[in-house]
Automatic annotation (TrEMBL):
Name of the molecule in the record: Cytosine deaminase
Its EC number(s): 3.5.4.1
A GO MF label: cytosine deaminase activity
Source organism superkingdom: Bacteria
Residue stretches making up the Amidohydrolase domain: 38-85, 91-398
Pfam families: Amidohydro_3
Keywords: Hydrolase
Length: 411
């Protein structure tokens, strides 16, 4: 297969992509089609590696309003609503909803997804469903599953046993939720347990860490310290860290040294974090989004995630990561032109690093996984919400959208 005339970020002019045996074999201008070779002219459109969803809860998608709406818009009411809804879960219920969202994600160019799955359920219903879907959806999307203790590890009956059982069932990563534990001691103990479990099983880690407006929530320092001591840094992710928005600067500067030394990753979910945080404030209201700009400038890896799609924590959402990036740039005030032009990295290369992916990117020898957007560059793609006109996975077309035709009648 030969894809002609694509634009790649940071490269002058257009190039052609030759694919053989599901891999990129040539990336250079003016390649000549071989006899019988399938070709497509991209006409100067932008090609990127596939989008990577680095933080979502697929088990809860499409459950907004079931059985009740989250009227306060808070994280904690969302947990209450989900606690009620998960009592009615079945494997087929979860699989039906996730299949719908996975198709949407594929149409938006997403090929890799890290999903957190609630394991504070004695039956582990959602986890069983997602483990089955990981295999079922493998030709469309690579699913990475995090054992997520939504209602706590030490604050939930048999929480530790359920985490161990989830690890035995074959999850990819271990999670925790220190800010939701009953006490500071439980918070630290649960993090120690989760880090040791991940280390001993050779698993990745992704912790819902300090997702609260309380500047006294300091789970992050414990997580980063354990990651440093255990030599796990690049395998560890701190998600949300919204309390960092409220940390005093003297503490943050001290903490930044530890974060840099630890080598851990961060995920911000700017749309949902902005929606959920600051709910206890009158005015001024905090944005409640972690310090993406400062972390990035310190050389720390940060990616963006969707978090929730039409569930108890977010009544809206489609899974289109373009929306997440656009919102993230505004709310973090990263609106300098170079910041905008390079922001695709939050949902491509940075996110791939978060997921610890190998052989990711448009490079000779890598699997031919890439997307083509209906725009000549990323800034234009953001401005005009350019669709992903084609998505290829191992050289096979998995999703296609026709470019929009705009007609205006005036005068």
């Amino acid at each position: 297969m030969l894809i002609q005339n694509v634009t790649l970020p940071g490269r002058e002019g257009s190039v052609d992509l030759r694919i053989s045996d599901a891999c990129f074999t040539h990336i250079e201008p003016n390649l000549t089609a071989e006899p019988g070779e399938e070709t497509w002219d991209a006409e100067g459109r932008l090609a990127l590696p596939p989008f990577v969803e680095s933080h979502i809860h697929l088990d809860s998608v499409l459950t907004a309003g079931e059985p009740k709406w989250n009227m306060s818009g808070t994280l904690f009411e969302g947990i209450e609503r989900w606690s009620e809804r998960k009592k009615t879960l079945s494997v087929e219920d979860v699989k039906t909803r996730v299949r719908r969202v996975a198709r949407d994600q594929a149409s938006f160019g997403v090929q890799y997804v890290r999903t957190h799955v609630d394991v504070t359920d004695p039956e582990l219903t959602a986890l069983r469903a997602l483990l089955e879907l990981r295999d079922e959806l493998a030709d469309l999307i690579t699913l990475q599953i995090v054992a997520f203790p939504q209602e706590g590890i030490d604050s939930f009956p048999n929480g530790r046993d359920l985490m161990v059982k989830a690890a035995d069932m074959g999850v990819d990563a271990i999670g925790a939720i220190p800010h939701f534990e009953f006490t500071r001691e439980y918070s630290v103990d649960s993090l120690n347990f989760a880090c040791e479990l991940a280390r001993d099983r050779g698993l990745l880690m992704d912790v819902h860490c300090d997702e609260i407006d309380d500047e006294a929530s300091r789970g992050l320092e414990t997580l980063a310290t354990r990651a440093l001591e255990f030599g796990m840094g690049e395998k560890v992710t701190a998600s949300h860290t919204t309390a960092m928005h409220s940390y005093n600067n003297a503490y943050f500067v001290r903490l930044l040294r530890l974060l840099t030394m630890s080598g851990i990753n961060f995920v911000s979910n700017p749309m949902v974090n902005t929606h959920l945080q600051g709910r206890m404030d009158t005015y001024p209201k905090r944005r409640g989004v972690t310090r993406v700009k400062e972390l990035t400038e310190a050389g720390i890896n940060v990616s963006f995630g969707t978090d929730d799609i039409r569930d108890p924590w977010n009544p809206l959402g489609t899974g289109n990561l373009r929306d997440v990036v656009l919102n993230g740039l505004y709310v973090t005030q990263m609106m300098g032109y170079p910041q905008i032009a390079e922001s695709y990295n939050f949902v491509t290369h940075n996110a791939a690093r978060t997921l610890h992916l190998d052989n990711y990117g448009i490079e000779v020898g890598n699997p031919a996984r890439f997307i083509v957007l209906d725009a000549p560059n990323w800034v234009e793609a953001l401005n005009f919400n350019a669709p992903v006109v084609r998505s290829y996975r191992d050289g096979k077309l998995v999703a296609k959208t026709e470019p929009a035709t705009r007609e205006v009648y005036w005068g």
